[in-house]
What we know:
- The complex is a heterodimer of chains A (about 220) and B (about 325).
- By secondary structure, chain A is of the alpha+beta class.
- Chain A contains six helices and ten strands, in the order E-E-E-H-E-E-E-H-H-E-E-E-E-H-H-H.
- Chain A folds into two domains: about 5-80, Phosphorylase Kinase, domain 1, CATH 3.30.200.20; about 85-220, Transferase(Phosphotransferase), domain 1, CATH 1.10.510.
- Helix content of chain A is about 45%, strand content about 20%.
- Chain A has a five-stranded antiparallel sheet, covered by helices on one side.
- In chain A, a hairpin with a 4-residue loop joins strand 1 and strand 2.
- The longest helix of chain A is centred in the N-terminal third of the chain and has 25 residues, at about 40-60.
- In chain B, the strands form three sheets. In chain B, strands 1, 2, 3, 4, 5 and 6 form a six-stranded mixed sheet that branches.
- The model of chain B has no long low-confidence stretch (mean pLDDT about 95).
- The chains are: A alpha+beta (about 220), B alpha/beta (about 325).
- The interface between A and B is large, with 37 and 56 residues.
- Chain A: Belongs to the protein kinase superfamily. BUD32 family.
- Chain A: Its EC number is 2.7.11.1.
Amino acid sequence: MDSFTLTKQGAEARLYQGTYLGRPTIIKERFIKKYRHKHLDDSLTKERIKAETKAIVRCKSVGIRTPAIYLVDFERRMVFMEHLLHSITLKDFIETTSFEKLSKLAISIGTILGRMHEGNIIHGDLTSSNILLMNVHNKDKFDDLKDLKIVLIDFGLSHVDCSAEDKGVDLYVLERALVSTHAVADQIFPKIIEGYRGYYKKGFKEILAKYEAIRARGRKRTMVG
Amino acid sequence: MVIAIGFEGSANKLGVGIIKDGVVLSNPRVTFITPPGEGFMPKETAEHHRQHILSVLQKALEEAKISGEDIDVVCYTKGPGMGAPLATVAIVARTVAQLWNKPILGVNHCIGHIEMGRLITNAKNPTVLYVSGGNTQIIAYARKRYRIFGETIDIAVGNCLDRFARVLKISNDPSPGYNIEQLAKKGQKYIPLPYCVKGMDVSFSGILSYMEERTSSLLKEGYSPEDLCFSLQETIFAMLVETTERALAHCNSSEVLIVGGVGCNLRLQEMMNEMCKERGSTLFATDERFCIDNGVMIAHAGAEMFRSGTRMKWEESTVTQRYRTDEVETTWRED
Lengths: 225, 335
């Protein structure tokens, strides 16, 4: 722990960088949230560490790239995981990349999400900050899609579920996160759906119907008060 | 210089406010209070507003020491809200606009809350938590619109509190939420309740059903009404603070503004402030005068729209029960 330095305070956790067993490592510390009742905070933290590690293992089994887990420490509320050195968030990538490249990438993202849902993994917090693009040649270059691998992170709110409803909510959460953050989202999200549909042939029909219904629920909800 | 009058009556509060270049001249309000165990229904609420609106209007003008001629623009709540009360208030706004021969502007209720909050607190570009009886939204400004980052996927947080108050037959005077807050201060035992966060969205219907089903048995097991109020508040407010923090981190923002009726709950403010302190952000909140629905927030948002050139034709001066925050182009914001 001594050799680790604090790099970021996200919403969920503090992230520390360093080396563990000779490997570049990120420690994700779900520190105590003082605003929360202790009882609630303890149970949520435990639940989320479990959810995150479970989903990562499950992703591995269906061939989705995620950071590898090195150590889980419930006492210190920490997970030690692989530090993906040569990667950027989709959020940063979108702002610096041409639309053509983005729409191609969006189709691949859709494919990955389709595969994740086929494996009944519900991410629970899909945003452009939680999708990484990693250069497979260990370089800090992100201009050629062929060199990039899509990596999913932050599975703290994930769970396993086979229902179309939960998968629909997952897509809806992503759409809203994209639309509220990025000007090009209106054009990109349909491409993600296109990739999703192309891969997840068995499920997409029911899921898209659910997704439409969830969307309408938001739009049509009465807002009295 | 713009002097604007605003009419608000989208729910059980009826308010008329007058503002002159960001200075509040008057802001009287009356509230339709129902007996314990009952909520307010559209028809009765509209009746209440019809009964009181002229006296509230007169009070607003007298307090502001202003007459109809001095006003530049008449603003009213176009939506969202309950149909009948909205229509009642809009009719009066249209009538006085005709009488005084002044332009009329329909204002989005949520935008009214946000702009009033920014005016009172001087928050520049905050991530906004808008929490009331009908709305639960996490909002951030981008590209000429207030974008909804997260919201409830079923009922609003205030609706959850109000309906729980009915289960316990807590008084609706001055408001069910206020009385829950007071009881919660005396709560001792924490009861684990369903906690439902989906990304930046939240859900309260599950927790309400849980409370509706279990309250009588929990009371028999030795938990007090105070314990129930305490546990409910701790749980649902933690959900709101968590999702706000997630939006804050996602937007790299360093300001949080709480608006809406539930926003005057001091426990919610305390929890949000604790979260903000942990990340070096600043919390902005207002008190019941401006958190709870009022007329001047509509006047202020309307004045901002008017100043930036927005005009409304007579035939467009209608009301709508559904009117999303992100439908309005924020012509008055330059950033």
